[in-house]
Every structure is written in structure tokens, then in C-alpha cells.
Predict the 3D structure of the following.
Amino acid sequence: MPDASILIVEDEAIVAEDLAGRLRRLGYAVAGTTDLGEEALRLTQELRPSLVLMDIRLAGTMDGVAAAARIRQESGVPVIYLTASSDRATIDRAKVSGPFGFILKPFEDRELESHIEMALSKHT
């Protein structure tokens, strides 16, 4: 979906920059980036992205799982987790927020694109 805009929520600036570049190369618009869960809530309401790519560990007091749950509840925007954490407790906690995907870092562009396309097709 080339018209899709994506909000990046990632606490590592270099990872967020790399991800933004990948998304643009794949034909997606980057709605914005933030490293804070609280800011992700505000930006989702303000920018109305098609999708949010969310790290689980974030700067600030609100982690990605809490932010994703609020985003899904308040705006219905689909969220895909991007995380290096693959332990059972993290996965079980993330499942409760109703994500549209869970991608383990590092990942390939094809994997990222397929998850995004599946999430967007389920949401529209």
C-alpha cells in the first residue's frame, strides 16, 4: 500500500533512522518518529498514521506494550511490534495488547514489508 503512512516508535535513534529509510525505499511515507510512549499516543491522534511500528522498550515511563494497548483502544490504528526481546514473558505480555504483528530484530526488508501489508489488509 504505497499511500500508507507509518509512525515509528523506537528508543534508539540510529535504529529509527535506518527503519525510516527502509520504509521510504519500500514506498511507505513516514508519518513521524518518537522514542516515548506518551508521545506516540499524541502523534497517533494528531497524525492519524495507517500503522504504528512499536519497539517494546522505550524511553520514558510508558513502555511499548502500554502505548500500543492505548493506541488500539483509543484510535484503532494497527500496531506491529519490532523488538529484540523474544522471551516468553515479553511475548505473552505483548499479545494482550492485540498487535497486528511481532517482528524480531534484526529483520529483513521483505519480512518487514510482508508484516506491514498483512496488517494493513486486515485493518482496512
Summary: The two ends are 11 Å apart (CA to CA). The mean pLDDT is 95.
